[in-house]
C-alpha cells in the first residue's frame, strides 16, 4: 500500500512496480539492531541492482538558482525543518528552492541528543503543571495547556513511528535504563510532591507511554537488581530495580543531510553555503516580498532569487533573518543552549543507555551509546544562540558530576576521558504577530508578516520536523493560492532508503572485502548507496580487510567516502567533512585534528583545489576543531575549578611513566620538563622530590602523591605550574560528590 501510494506521486514507477509483487508483508522485531521492519515474503530485487538517483552538483544548483526563474516556494535554512519543507514542497509538484548559509545541519540539527523521542518528560511536566495550586484559580487555562502538551506528545509518537519505519538505514531503537535507587524519590522529580512516588508507578506509566504509539515500539520492561548488574555492570549496585524503555536514535546530521539531498533528488534546487543578504519587495520598501538577494559564501558572488512564497526556517537564528525583513521587528525566538559530552564506549554496556530523571537541578540527563562511544547530556542554559560549538567548562564538569552518581564506585569518571564536547541551541518560540490575548503555543510557531507576506516557522523538536514542514507548507499553499498535490512525506524513505535491506552489510563484506565494522557504518549512513561508495574502495594491502583504507585507526570512516561525498553529496569544506559528513569531531576531537591533513589532501584531489586553497581549507578546519571540547579543559571563566581526587590520580598516572605504580626521582624530573615546567637546578628538584618521598625510599606511591598535593600549599612551584598547565585551581582537594570528576584533562 505504501509503495502504491508512493507511485501515485508519479515518481519511482519502476521500484513501485517491482515492489507490488511482494506487497504482502509481516512485521518482525530484529533483536540484533532493535528495529521494527517490514520483511517481504517474496524476494525483492537485490539492493545492489537499484540505480541510485543522481543529484546535480552544487555549481549546477547555483546556475539554476541564479537563472532568473520564479519559484513557488523558497526556503531559507537548511536544518531539519527547512530541508523538510523543501522535500515536502518538491514532492507536491511545487517549484522549490532551498538555501543554507553553511552546510546542511551545520547548526542545531547536528547538535542534538541524537534521540528521536516522543517526550515522556513533556507528559510529566504537563501533569505537574496541572496539579499545581494555580489550576484552582485558572482551571480552563490549565486544562487547555495540558491538552496542548498531550497533543504534542501524541504527534511526536506518530512522527517517531514514521521516521523509524520509513528509514531503517538511518535510525534504530535504543533501550534506555532508568535506575530506581529507592521507593520514594526526594526531592521529587519535576518539583511536585506527587512525583515522589514515581519509582512505584513508573512501570505503569511506561506501559501507558508505549500505548500512545500503538505498541509499535519494543515493549518497556523491568530489570531486577541482579539482572541489571549482569546487563549493566557499570551501574551502581544500590538500586531497587531498573525500568527499561525504548526511544528512537539516529545520526542527526546525516538524517538532515539526507532530507536535503532527497529534496534535490525530487527536483528541488538546493544550495549550501548560500546566504540571504536582503529582501526584494514589489513596491520598493512597502510592497510584499517577491524574492531575495543572496551571496555564494565560497566566491562572494551575489544574485537574486524570485519566489511566490518565502519561508524562513532558521531555528534559533530565525530572528536574524527577520531583521533583514524588518530591522525593528520584535524577537520571536529565545535560545536555550545544551552541552553534550562524549566518553569512551565502555561507559555504556551492550548498547543500553541510562536516564537520570532527577538531576541536582531537575533536568533529564541521558547516558547513550552512540557510534561506538557514550553520549552524555544535556544541560539547559538560556542565552542568545551563537554558531560556535564550544561548550562552557562548567557544564562539562556538571555533566561528569551527575554521571558519576549512578555508576559503580570502581568506575572512575575522569575529566581526561572526555573525547569531545559541544553545545547546541534549541529555539524557544513565541508569535510576535499573534493577536493580543492569543494563547502561547507549547510546540512550534508559524507566523506570517502581514506587510511582506513572508512566513517563518520555528520551535518544535527534531522528532516532529516532518509534521512542522507539512503544517507550514499547508498554510503557505492556502495563503498564496498555489496548486499542489497532497503531502506524501509520511510514506517516503529518505535518500538511500528505497530498496534497503538489513542484509546490506553482509553483502558489502562479501562483495567488496571491507571489514564488518565498516560495512555496518556504510549501510547505516548511505543505505543502498553504500554499494556506490564501496566501488571507490582501494586495496588495503592487508590480508583482511582486503579493501577500504580508513581515515584514522579506531573509526570506520573510509578515505573513499570523501571522494564519494565530494562528487555526489555537495560537501565543499574540510571542516564539514570532519564534523557533519563524518562525525569524527563530535566523537573524538583529537582524532579529528589528526585526520584533518589527510582529509584536506583527499578533498583537494577530488575537487581540484590549488595548494593555497588546500592550506586555507585545512587552517579553517583546524580552527573550527579547536572549539570542540576534549580531554584538556578550557578553564577560562569557569567557576567549578577545584581539582578532584580522580583528577589528581590521573595526574599521578602521567608522572608514572613506566606504569610500575610509583613515581621515582627521574620520572618526576622528566615529566616536569615534558609539561613545560623544568626545574632550574638539581637542588630544586631534589628538594621537591624530598617533600613527596617522606619514607626516603625513592618511591612515591599514589596515596602519598595525593597527600603531597593536599599538604603542599598552592605557592609550591611544581604544583602551581601543574595547576596553570592544566587550567584548574589547585587551592584545595574537594570532598564529596560535588568535587568528583570535574577538572583534570
UniProtKB/TrEMBL annotation:
Family the UniProt entry places it in: Belongs to the FAD-dependent glycerol-3-phosphate dehydrogenase family.
Cofactor(s), names only, from the UniProt record: FAD
Organism: Ditylum brightwellii
Protein name: Glycerol-3-phosphate dehydrogenase
Top EC class of this enzyme: oxidoreductase
Catalytic activity from the UniProt record: a quinone + sn-glycerol 3-phosphate = dihydroxyacetone phosphate + a quinol
Gene Ontology MF: a single term: calcium ion binding
GO CC, alphabetical: mitochondrion
Listed pathway(s): Polyol metabolism; glycerol degradation
